Amino acid sequence: MTATYVCPYCGGEIERGFSVQYLVRSCSDCGEHGRFVHRAVAAALEEVSTADMPDGWAEEPLDERLLIAVREGVLDVGDARARDGE
Ligand SMILES: [Zn+2]
């Protein structure tokens, strides 16, 4: 079983044989070093209402949005797929 991770800067995707929220690496596409976010987590971030988040959140890179969302308590990544749109 593989998991897909998304580059926070260029959207490039990689696959790995394990599943974590994110992994830190240098992107072979754009050369940036950052946190590649699990695609399921990235999808959950897309569903977060910007009204619940600090100003400018939507303009942050994907990995920064993840950290902010977790800090703000709006994204419980462990069961992000089990929540039903509260
Ligand atoms: Zn990249």
Walkthrough of the structure:
This protein is an alpha+beta fold and 86 residues long. The protein has two helices and four strands. Strands 2-1-4-3 form a four-stranded antiparallel beta sheet. A hairpin with a 6-residue loop joins strand 1 and strand 2 (13-16). The longest helix is centred in the C-terminal third of the chain and has 11 residues, at 62-72. It is globular. Bound molecules: zinc ion.
Count of domain modules = 1
Radius of gyration: 13 Å
Largest sheet composition: 4 strands, antiparallel
Q: What order do the strands of the largest sheet run in, or round the barrel if closed?
A: 2-1-4-3
Helix/strand/pairing category: alpha+beta
The number of distinct β-strands equals 4
Coarse morphology:
globular
Search tags:
86 residues, 22% helix, 4 strands, four-stranded antiparallel beta sheet, binds zinc ion
Secondary structure layout plus pairing:
Elements: E1 3-6, E2 13-16, E3 22-26, E4 33-38, H1 39-46, H2 62-72
Antiparallel strand pairs: 1-2, 1-4, 3-4
Bound molecules: zinc ion (ZN).
Zinc ion (ZN) binds next to loops.
Task: Offer a quick outline of the entry.
With 86 residues, the chain is α+β, with helices and mostly antiparallel strands. Helix content is 22%, strand content 22%.
